Amino acid sequence: MGQRKRHRRPVRRRIALATIASGALVVTATLLTAGQTMSAFTDQAMLNLGTDGVGAHPFDIVSVLPGEQVAEALPGQGVAVPISGDDGFVPGRTITVDLGVANNTPDLAAAVTVTVKPSDPGGTGQVGSSPNITPFLRVTVVDTTTGALLVGGSATDPTQGAPVASASGVIGRLAPRGAPALADGSTWVPGNAGSRHDLTITLFYVDTPDTAAYNNGRSALEVEFDGTSTP
What we know:
There is one protein chain. The chain is mostly beta strands and 231 residues long. 0% of the residues lie in helices and 42% in strands. The strands form 3 sheets. Strands 5, 6, 7, 9, 10, 11 and 13 form a 7-stranded antiparallel sheet that branches. A hairpin with a 7-residue loop joins strand 3 and strand 4 (55-58). The radius of gyration is 19 Å and the shape is elongated.
């Protein structure tokens, strides 16, 4: 019999910018990977129906953290990563983190988007009773692999970043890995050209008179990679 079409199934990988604190001229910030409710994601590619049986190809995307460590989201688990400049994140300043996103699937391509958004249950960026500085943050995301500006109005001027409410962009097609999938926590090993893209994510804290009332403010944010198999 002939080959059936592949069923497209999304995969999300979340990187949480957890409790970014500012205001009192000091910031404590950590970067965490967090998972969805499932740790196994499969794009059911039904092949060779008949005497050869039925096969299914796993579909997966992973984050590549600073230090070239592979991070695959698992339920209730995270990986802490330092954010450069977090000790001086005050109005008028920026903090930056570099992250990779890679297709971990040997023979299926991935269409991937990136979104920076609130990670709290209410979707506002609120952290406890702290003043919420989320409305004063501007986001820029640059794909350093291609040079493309994915989020924001300028690759070099963080003051032109997008508000958190609209901080989403299309990374595009990641080629199949073309090699065995990497395990969570392993050291990155390159696959096919185009199967990994590297991003620089910049948060700018707007300097306005209003921010004077937000000393010791915080924002709970996450970076979400959303991937779907594609030809």
